[in-house]
Amino acid sequence: MKHPLKREQLLELYYFMKLNRELEDAMVRLFRQNKLMSGLYQSLGQEAISIGTAYALEERDWLAPMIRNIGAMLVKGFPPRDVFTQHMARLTAPTRGKDSTSHFGDYKRRAVGPISMLGDLIPVMTGVAMAGRYLGQNIVTLTWIGDGGSSTGAFHEGLGLAASQRAPIIVVIENNQWAYSTPVARQVPLKDLADRAKAYGIPSFIVDGNDVLAVYDVTKDAVELCRAGNGPVIIEAKTHRMKGHAQHDPAEYVPKEMFEYWKARDPIARFEKYLTDNKLWTEAGRKEILARIEREIAEDQKFAEESPMPPPEMAAEGVYCESGCHDIRPEWKRPVAEVTPPRSSVKSEWTVSNEDGYGEWQQPAEARDLAGAAGNGGGAAARPDGRNGGARNRKSKPARVTKSKGRR
Fold first, then answer.
1. pLDDT tens-digit map of 385-402
2. For position 32, which CATH number holds?
3. Does residue 113 contact residue 82 with C-beta atoms inside 8 Å?
4. Which one of 21, 196, 240, 241 is the catalytic residue?
């Protein structure tokens, strides 16, 4: 690994992956008992993506999950009871019973709640990334999108904005090969969805989404690029959705051979083999992790089932932000004077090519020094593709696409 992990961290990765799966299995049982107030969208076979990408972030960084990224919320510190109570619409849920799906977040934990309209989280997280840079926080933001969602207008509009602003955002395309019942080949003429990055002149990576260590490693690379001001970055994680779109979908349109192929590459089984082959755990240690997971899920499920439903009079509360509903203030990590006039005012200087008349904005040295103090590419440092800050150069080198091979 380019970014090696300690034994304790490797075991923690396994804990989160297994917790993710066991939690969803418990949710399936509750769904069949008619105890959930919502649909249920499993991430079976895709746990390595949520866990590996979220684990590569730092505590200060922000993420925004989609419906199959419960594992990322666990890594961010959300306990299983938040997932149980949320889907059961209980008063003790993060949204206090006002939403019964995975639509919840927590600004203190640096987590933005999902948005049902696919692709819309990309411009939102681009804005979070730009705000963090403005405040001097040197943060990175990350969100996920499916293969089908990568064809939405919001996906491209968000990436267009992120690329032009060099926003420190990572967009993870979970290519599980099915947009509900539509195979990738029927909705886009690309084998590698990471190639979409070329249109924006930004770096991209392709990774085996069923190898948690490969996912972690490539995400660390992307985080370093963004932190250094060379974002945004696309990561395409190739995997397979091992269930239907949701519990109501039997996925009869998926060839049985595909299920068999990917079942043999189950991310948890592969990581268990890695830990065993490298003598990183004992059977007693494995059983201890599994016992901990079983205990935590049982306790939190019991808490959720015993929690009350919200009273009817709460329905009208929180519709509007009234006095005292929240207290959000900017967390400045740089002097405010750096980003306000007169210090933030610079002359607009352009260089026009004699070859094709194409214009390139040249950021003055004082602006580079000022903006660079914030990190995340606030200045005009060179990009991996040879561009500097400002208008796009048509003669730039193509965006980098790196393939990261996984382990069998």
1. 333 333 233 233 334 456
2. 3.40.50.970
3. no
4. 241
What angle, 0 to 180 degrees and rounded to 10, lies between the N-to-C axes of helices 7-32 and 283-306?
A: 40
Measured between alpha carbons, how far is residue 403 from residues 149, 176, 238, 408 in Å? 22, 17, 11, 16
Calpha distance 91→56 (Å, rounded):
33
Set 253, 295, 392, 408: catalytic member: 253
Q: Is 241 a catalytic residue?
A: yes
The Cα–Cα gap between 321 and 330 comes to 18
Domain extent for 207: 7-308
Task: Please identify which of the residues 3, 103, 245, 400 carries the catalytic annotation.
Answer: 245
Residue 304 lies in a domain: yes
Q: What is the domain count for the chain?
A: 1
Q: Which two tokens stand for residue 347?
A: 């002359």
Kindly report, residue by residue over 110-167, the tens digit of the pLDDT.
999 988 889 899 999 999 999 999 999 999 999 999 999 999 999 999 999 999 999 9
Strands 349-352 vs 359-362: parallel, antiparallel or unpaired: antiparallel
Q: How many CA atoms lie within 13 A of 12 on its CB side?
A: 14
Q: Does residue 18 belong to any structural domain of this protein?
A: yes
Q: pTM here? A: 0.88
3-state secondary structure of 291: helix
| Residue 317 within a domain | no
Three-state DSSP state, 313: helix
C-alpha 234/C-alpha 158 separation (Å) is 12
Q: What is the pLDDT of residue 375?
A: 67
Give residue-wise pLDDT tens across range 216-257: 999 999 999 999 999 999 999 999 987 878 788 787 888 899
What one-letter code names the amino acid at 311?
P
Ranges of residues in the chain whose predicted pLDDT is under 50: 379-400, 408
Residue reference for tokens 């947009």: 179
Measured between alpha carbons, how far is residue 321 from residues 45, 105, 316, 330, 357 in Å? 40, 17, 12, 18, 51
Beta bridge partners of 62: 141
Tokens of 299: 């306790």
For residue 335, tell me if it sits in a domain: no
143 is written with which tokens? 């969100």
